[in-house]
Amino acid sequence: MSITKYPDEKRLEGLSKQLDWDVRKIQCWFRHRRNQDKPPTLTKFCESMWRFTFYLCIFCYGIRFLWSSPWFWDTRQCWHSYPYQPLTSGLYYYYIMELAFYWSLMFSQFTDIKRKDFLIMFLHHLATIGLITFSYINNMVRVGTLVLCLHDVSDFLLEAAKLANYAKYQRLCDTLFVIFSAVFVVTRLGIYPFWILNTTLFESWEIIGPYRSWWLFNGLLLVLQVLHVIWSYLIARIAFKALIRGKVSKDDRSDVESSSEEEDITTSTKGPCGRSSSNGANRVNGHMGGSYWAEE
């Protein structure tokens, strides 16, 4: 705790002489000690369950609300009579709940396990909160509801796949991940640019003309699109590895320091201090067992 969690070779040799232990035993001790700081599976399951519940409920609420809204079927309705568009109670609560949730994600990100895409997620939360607040202040709530609903449609699928992974239902996890990947790519790389960005960039310009906030609003939306491309690349890498190996692999975003998944696999497949087990416990129905890929 005071010097390092990952002693180098020289420090390991010094500890070996002080304790009269072999180096392998000391390495094993440090690995187990680091794993003690990792949150248990139950904690991660509860966190994913909370997010799954929220995403599913808010998506159902959003699609029910938008189904009877004219701008859901004709995006040009987002700009008719702008900015003198009424703010209904249903639309207000939809916005407030989404804003409160993303603020909670912004703060909890600093207490959760840090991962490789920490800065990307931080930028995503900033852009999302900025978009929700900015569109609410400028009464661009109609197109804002379309953006929110479009993003929620794939989020609950990811959380469902993680829940299945934590519960050791690997086949269900793989199936949900495939569905999530397809929905994510279609919505974020297809519907979002050709439906959302089309109306904010071109239809708004045509109907109400350019305005000062137009540049900031569309700039934030384009930032989200860049993040969508990055995440689609990461998802494609996982899917490609799954096709080659016949299983869904570890999430490429998890780093060594914050996510000890590889150490968990090593610990579960080996006895104390590196002795291999003979029961092949790292396989579940022909797939990788444990929380091997879904550490978001």
TrEMBL record:
Residues 3-41 bind DNA. It is found in: Endoplasmic reticulum membrane; Nucleus. The chain crosses the membrane at residues 52-72, 92-111, 118-137, 176-195, 215-240. Residues 266-282 have a biased composition (Polar residues). It catalyses: sphinganine + octadecanoyl-CoA = N-(octadecanoyl)-sphinganine + CoA + H(+). Gene3D superfamilies: Homeodomain-like. Residues 43-244 form the TLC domain. This is Ceramide synthase 5 isoform X4. It comes from Bos indicus.
